[in-house]
């Protein structure tokens, strides 16, 4: 059974078809890219998977379970984490709290436990803390654990956002333009980080990315969409030579 | 030892205050100011959960206080005093020690349920629109009670003093003062435990970025339900105590004026700071008494102070900081959970 199975996914906004008959199947432990010109509907696909939008037609299945009607936090509890195009950290809470809160779906204690500070509460909070510190250490963020995200450089904020997504312990990690707004040395760092996560965690990573350097050096498989429709699917080499892809990006030379 | 310094300190303070009141060193006027201070702390800190931590603008806190005040008053009057409509007391006076806390609890629960009127719309509605809903909730409560003749309607409801008298008949110490102090401690303790837990931190996460909260597995509807019901429930507890301090309540004392007063305390103290709000509530109560000589002009001076505050220190006295953040060196002498 595949990890993620999308069949005939379509989303309409009024008269606009943002995503049209989108299909993909992802197995366990893959590194895949979704590319396409601006406005092609890539982020909409991610929003449909994470339960932020409901599909007009078609289905999204995670480990065989249809996510129809699930609210975003319920989809996340199934093991899907994501980052955002613009960074969406909780700016007024320190980095450690940002990473703790993303473990909400497996808090494992009730409101009463919280009021009474039961043994269960103490143990669970300790476990949550331990996971958070482990991630901070692994992703070289330990020094800024008590910093507010808004005071950190942009590249570090990205890393915090990815760390926050990883604290969900996802089986599917969706990265929405992770390299957007990064300078070239930060991009190098990002490539290393994504590679490191892929090597060290049993996770399938699916990223939307415009910087071909990132896509080509990381992903074994690339899917290209334009105007909501899939126009190509294959290895980086195949995609680079594909005439439809070149046309979508550079336009038709016969005017 | 440091585990208990705060607890010992608080109870020692309570004992000193109660002792001074008992010995007559505090006049009844001072005692009543102290009690209103406690009630104000409860109201302001509980509203802070919604207006500060959750970043919504609830301006109907007085309504929930009203529900708590009336429900608990009806309970105690039913149990311990003679009322034209509700008949003779059902229980003997010495049972007030059990009856009064139970009545307060029933009042708080009723107020928490009333909080649903705001909590459920908050799933879909935010900001200005939700603020209008909270305002409407305030009016619904006041208008409903104004029209209930059985509870006195606009003339008000009385007979609650029988409760404290019942207690004093057993042992003559300032019971209401003690109950108010315990209620205040309970409120701050409960709120503090909630907002410092990972569960409770879901509330500011909603305020800072609701979409991120949803996507990072925070059940936003559940968090809103908890925040609104906890906030209104504790306001109900404050209302119950308020009613029994005065021995008389009328619907007008819980109208929009009251809600505004509570809001002023929250914004004065700093949103997202429990100790700041508590300090502001103390300061506000003292200020209200100090400005008593101005008469009605008080209500010109206080809003003016609010305007100045918003101009020169919009984050309030404490902003997001807690008292313990201001004196980090003292931390080694205590630990507070």
Give the topology, please:
The complex is a heterodimer of chains A (255) and B (337).
Chain A: E1 4-13, E2 16-26, E3 31-35, H1 42-49, E4 57-62, E5 65-66, H2 72-77, E6 80-82, H3 95-101, H4 111-116, H5 119-138, H6 154-166, E7 172-176, H7 184-200, E8 204-208, H8 212-218, E9 221-226, E10 229-234, H9 236-241, H10 243-250
Helix pairs in contact in A: 3-6
Chain B: H1 5-23, H2 28-53, H3 61-80, H4 96-114, H5 116-119, H6 127-146, E1 157-158, H7 161-170, H8 175-196, H9 202-208, H10 210-215, H11 220-246, E2 248-249, H12 256-269, H13 274-290, H14 298-312, H15 323-326
Antiparallel strand pairs in B: 1-2
Helix pairs in contact in B: 2-8, 2-11, 2-12, 2-13, 3-4, 3-6, 3-11, 4-11, 8-11, 12-13
Give a summary of the structure in a few sentences:
Among the domains of chain A are: 1-26 and 51-78, no CATH class; 90-177 and 196-205, P-loop containing nucleotide triphosphate hydrolases (Rossmann fold, 3-Layer(aba) Sandwich), CATH 3.40.50. Chain A has 10 helices and 10 strands.
What does this structure look like?
The complex is a heterodimer of chains A (255) and B (337). Among the domains of chain A are: 1-26 and 51-78, no CATH class; 90-177 and 196-205, 3-Layer(aba) Sandwich (Rossmann fold), CATH 3.40.50. Chain A is 38% helix and 23% strand. Chain A has 10 helices and 10 strands. In chain A, strand 4 and strand 5 (65-66) form a beta hairpin. Chain B is 68% helix and 1% strand. Chain B has one domain (5-333): ABC transporter involved in vitamin B12 uptake, BtuC (Orthogonal Bundle). Chain B has helices at 5-23, 28-53, 61-80, 96-114, 116-119, 127-146, 161-170, 175-196, 202-208, 210-215, 220-246, 256-269, 274-290, 298-312, 323-326, and strands at residues 157-158, 248-249. A two-stranded antiparallel sheet of chain B has the order 1-2. At the A-B interface, helix 2, helix 3, helix 4 and helix 5 of A face helix 8, helix 9, helix 10 and helix 11 of B.
């Amino acid at each position: 059974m595949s990890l993620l199975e999308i069949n005939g996914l379509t989303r309409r906004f009024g008269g606009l078809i943002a995503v049209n008959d989108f299909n993909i199947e992802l197995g366990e432990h893959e590194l895949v890219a979704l590319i396409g010109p601006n406005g092609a509907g890539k982020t909409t696909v991610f929003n449909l998977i994470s339960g932020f939008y409901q599909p007009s037609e078609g289905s999204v299945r995670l480990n065989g379970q249809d996510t129809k009607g699930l609210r975003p936090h319920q989809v996340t509890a199934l093991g899907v984490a994501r980052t955002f195009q613009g960074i969406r950290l909780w700016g007024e809470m320190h980095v450690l709290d940002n990473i703790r809160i993303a473990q909400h779906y497996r808090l494992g204690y009730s409101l009463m436990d919280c009021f009474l500070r039961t043994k269960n509460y103490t143990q669970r909070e300790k476990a949550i803390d331990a996971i958070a510190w482990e991630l901070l250490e692994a992703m070289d963020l330990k020094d800024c654990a008590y910093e507010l995200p808004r005071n950190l450089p942009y590249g570090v904020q990205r890393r915090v956002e990815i760390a926050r997504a990883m604290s969900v312990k996802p089986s599917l990690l969706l990265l929405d333009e992770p390299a957007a707004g990064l300078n070239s040395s930060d991009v190098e760092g990002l490539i290393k980080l994504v590679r490191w996560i892929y090597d060290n965690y049993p996770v399938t990573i699916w990223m939307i990315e415009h910087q071909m350097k990132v896509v080509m050096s990381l992903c074994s498989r690339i899917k290209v969409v334009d105007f909501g429709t899939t126009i190509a699917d294959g290895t980086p080499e195949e995609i680079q030579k594909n005439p439809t892809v070149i046309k979508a990006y550079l336009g038709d030379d016969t005017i | 030892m440091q585990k208990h310094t705060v607890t010992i300190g608080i109870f020692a303070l309570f004992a000193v205050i109660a002792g001074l009141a008992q010995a007559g060193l505090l006049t009844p006027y001072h005692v009543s100011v102290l009690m209103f201070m406690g009630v104000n702390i409860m109201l302001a800190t509980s509203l802070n959960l919604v207006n500060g931590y959750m970043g919504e603008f609830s301006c109907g806190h007085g309504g929930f206080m009203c529900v708590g005040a009336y429900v608990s008053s009806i309970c105690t009057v039913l149990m311990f005093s003679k009322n034209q409509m509700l008949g003779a007391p059902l229980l003997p006076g010495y049972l007030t020690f059990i009856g009064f806390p139970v009545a307060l609890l029933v009042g708080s629960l009723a107020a928490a349920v009333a909080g649903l009127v705001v909590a459920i719309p908050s799933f879909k509605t935010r900001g200005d629109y939700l603020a209008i809903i909270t305002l409407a909730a305030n009016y619904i409560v006041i208008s409903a009670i104004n029209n209930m003749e059985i509870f006195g309607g606009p003339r008000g409801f009385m007979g609650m003093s029988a409760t404290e008298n019942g207690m004093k008949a057993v042992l003559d110490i300032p019971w209401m003062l003690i109950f108010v102090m315990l209620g205040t401690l309970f409120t701050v303790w409960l709120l503090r435990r909630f907002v410092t837990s990972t569960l409770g931190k879901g509330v500011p996460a909603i305020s800072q970025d609701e979409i991120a909260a949803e996507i990072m597995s925070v059940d936003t509807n559940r968090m809103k339900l908890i925040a609104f019901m906890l906030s209104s429930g504790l306001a109900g507890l404050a209302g119950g105590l308020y009613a029994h301090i005065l021995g008389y309540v009328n619907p007008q004392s819980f109208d929009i004026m009251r809600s505004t007063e509570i809001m002023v305390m929250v914004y004065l103290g700093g949103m997202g700071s429990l100790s700041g709000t508590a300090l502001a509530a103390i300061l506000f109560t003292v200020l209200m008494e100090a400005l008593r000589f101005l008469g009605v002009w008080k209500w010109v001076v206080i809003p003016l102070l609010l305007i100045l505050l918003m101009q020169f220190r919009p984050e309030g006295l404490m902003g997001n900081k807690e008292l313990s953040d201001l004196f980090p060196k003292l931390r080694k002498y205590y630990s507070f959970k």
